[in-house]
Amino acid sequence: MKPVIGGWSLRRRVITLLTVVGVLLIGLAAAEAAMAARNRTQIDAVLNQTGPLRVQSQELLNALLDQETAIRGYAVSGDPADLSPYREGLEQEKTVVASMRTLLDDYPQIGQELRIVEEQTAQWRQSVAEPVITTTEQNGTRAGQALVTEAARQQFDQVRSAVNDLQEEILTAREQAASNVRTSSNILVVLLIVAALVVVVAGALLLLSLDRMVIRPLIGLADQVREVAEGDYQHGIATTGPPEFVRLGEDVDAMRQKIAADLAEVRAARERIEWVNSQLQKQAEELTRSNRDLEQFAYVASHDLQEPLRKVASFCQLLQRRYAGQLDERADQYIAFAVDGAQRMQRLINDLLAFSRIGRLTTGFVEVDLNKVMGDVAGQTEAARQYADAELTWTELPVISGEEPLLTNLLANLVSNSIKFRRPDVPSKVHVSARLVGSEWEITCQDNGIGIEPEFADKIFVIFQRLHSKDAYPGTGIGLAIVKKIVEYHGGRVWVDTDVPEGTAIRFTLPALPQDVEAAAAADSADEPDAPTVDDPTPSTEAPAVLEEQADGADQPDRADERPESGRTGDMRETVG
């Protein structure tokens, strides 16, 4: 069953979790920053406010004690020098009070106590210290001592008590500030612990979420993919978890289905191929049996059929020689028909045997010099050339890999056809040339005969196809079919060039030897910097000029045994075709 995609995506869940954790951490960080600032303020209050106030309160008490001691001493001695501590104490009192007032902005209660101390001190000076100084200066020490009474001492004790109250208030404020410092420090520690807990909880939630939403679905998907990889291509893949993983599972399952469908097609194709192979094997067996039957037929045709055919031909010829003129004209005509038919049957059987043996009875490929082959062809076609007053020439021909007997038969058929299909009023000229085209030799056999119409260019290579009656041009119609089969057996192709100005040009290709191709490539690379490469003229344009030059020297003697560069021979003999 296909899982339903729903709920939050993995990205959304992770972003939400991180957002919540980030907000919490930012809030905690803000609270910690505020608490840290407050803690610094409270520590500052302890160190820079309540602490100095406590010290200054003690200095204030010392200044007041110095004043009271100086007044009593002056009342006893009457010496003005004894008033110096009084005046110094007074100045110190003013300085300390002024300094304390700068630290009392946050402590109004301490300021109130300080004002009480100032009021008590002013009353003591007004009621005790100033009268004692004045009286002693005017009336002497006795009068001054009379003013230093128990009431005066009690009044100064009130001043001292006010200073003690001030110190108690400062101490209370200092203890409160210290308590605030401890409280804020504890709160700051708690906030840090909470932040750490938030991080730990968020990490744990993230790990649990990854395990539930990522790791487990991935492991399940991997297990299912592994089952498919082991060969169970029909195993459906279903994935749970976030929508991304569900879609991933669907994509993987779609890929599995595609692979399964492709494998099914491959299996079907393999079955078809196996069936085709079996059919091909059967056909090969049938072809083998057919070849055996063909070989048997060739044996029968070359042996069993030849003997009665020779007997018929021989006795027909005996009848023709012995009874020629003794019977009536119609009998002589019948005997001539019988002799001609037996001879044509012999030629046809021989040509069919030659055609069937191409490629079957092989001697193996060797390097064949076509110049030597042309010499043999010239010898074979000597009789036909002498009868037709024909001229055979050729230019330098290459060395190729092939079977020399077949190549000889190939060129002999082409030359024989060129001599046979000549124009009655023009001496026959046949020229064979070759040129290297890529990795093949293109060989041309061109004549100045009757030519071939373009619409019949392909028909002439079909077995038993004739363009003329046997009365006009004798032959079995199998010669060019043999040419085509020999060329294709050697890996080439053959065609008729219909663009020549006169006569017929039959071209065919044969694979060139590797060293010839490399030599031609090296020659092209060496000539390229000197001058632009000019394509070699085709034999169709070159041969007529050669034929014209040779027509001027037609009376030269035959030199069949010379090198092919001489390009002229008169040795010819009729062959198949």
Secondary structure layout plus pairing:
Layout: H1 10-77, H2 84-101, H3 108-139, H4 141-147, H5 150-229, H6 243-304, H7 306-323, H8 329-357, E1 366-369, H9 370-380, H10 382-388, E2 391-394, E3 399-402, H11 404-420, E4 429-437, E5 440-447, H12 479-489, E6 494-497, E7 505-511, H13 514-527, H14 539-552
Parallel strand pairs: 2-4
Antiparallel strand pairs: 1-3, 4-5, 5-7, 6-7
Helix pairs in contact: 1-2, 1-3, 1-4, 1-5, 3-4, 3-5, 5-6, 6-8, 7-8, 9-11, 11-12
Could you explain the architecture of this structure?
The N terminus and C terminus are likely disordered. A hairpin with a 2-residue loop joins strand 4 and strand 5. The chain has 577 residues and is α+β, with helices and mostly antiparallel strands. The protein is rod-shaped. The protein has a 5-stranded mixed sheet with strand order 2-4-5-7-6, with helices on both faces. It has a two-stranded antiparallel sheet with strand order 1-3. It has 14 helices and 7 strands. Helix 1 packs antiparallel against helix 2 and helix 9 packs across helix 11.
